[in-house]
Amino acid sequence: MDNADYLDVALRLTNATLTDVDALRAALHDEPWWSSRAGERDLEALRPVADGLRHALAAAVAADTDGVRHAVNALLAEHPLRPRLSAGHMGEANWHIHMADPGESPATEVAAAAAWGLAHGIVHFGPSRFGHCGAADCDNYYLDTSTNRAKRFCSPRCANRVHVAAFRSRQSSSSRSSGEAGEGARRS
Ligand SMILES: [Zn+2]
Ligand SMILES: [Zn+2]
Questions:
Q1: Within-domain flag for 173
Q2: Which of 67, 82, 146, 187 fits a disulfide with 59 by CB distance 3.0 to 4.6 angstroms?
Q3: What is the Å distance from ligand 2's center to 134 Cα?
């Protein structure tokens, strides 16, 4: 994993529903090392981390510089990195770095990775590159890496949903107004 992956961990944790262990595992599915071992304790430990990430991202969206700095620094202080070099967990060498001792709970490493990933993401992209989904019923945050900064939704799914709803409401209002015109014509 590299810094971009850790930012992705931060966003997946931010946007996870965290209603139960399955939801947590789904959010961490790209990392079987975490998802396969995650349990109830990890879920409880990661809920406040997700809240902290949401605080930081809300501040980023509001262009609140101090708010971003305070929220991210609080996460970094609470969940410091304790990097460990690993030669792999199977027979073959597969060098990589863990963000905490691999013997620690998944939550310990996920929290540290997410805090570090968001801190690095703010430095690398700038806080204005983060957004809150424009769909009224979606509470997800996203990173906009488009060249024209045109991203408004967390996912193609939300974008499609909103565009289809807007299209339908345009269609129904235009058919209403042509119906009215027709009635007017009959009356005259
Ligand atoms: Zn490992
Ligand atoms: Zn969305």
A1: no
A2: 67
A3: 7
Query: Residue 37 above 90 pLDDT?
Result: yes
162 C-alpha to center of ligand 2: Å?
10
Q: Residue 94's domain spans which residues?
A: 3-154
Q: Report residues near ion ligand 2: CB below 5 Å.
A: 133, 135, 138, 140, 154, 158
Angle at 70 between CA 152 and CA 85, to 5 degrees: 90
For residue 180, tell me if it sits in a domain. no
Taking the CA of 151 as reference, the closest ligand is: 2
Helix, strand or coil, per DSSP, at residue 71: helix
Query: Between β-strands 84-86 and 96-98, what pairing exists: parallel, antiparallel or unpaired?
Result: antiparallel
Is residue 73 within 8 Å of 144, Cβ to Cβ? Answer: no
Please indicate, yes or no, if residue 163 is contained in any of the structural domains.
no
Rounded Cα distance between 108 and 73, Å, is: 17
Region 88-104 average pLDDT:
89
In a domain, 62, yes or no: yes
Residue recorded with tokens 């107004």: 177
pTM to 2 decimal places: 0.87
User: 181 C-alpha vs ligand 2 centroid, how far in Å?
Assistant: 38
Structure token digits, residue 86: 């690993």
Q: Percent of the chain scored above 70 by pLDDT?
A: 94
Q: Considering the chain, what percentage of its residues have pLDDT values greater than 90?
A: 77
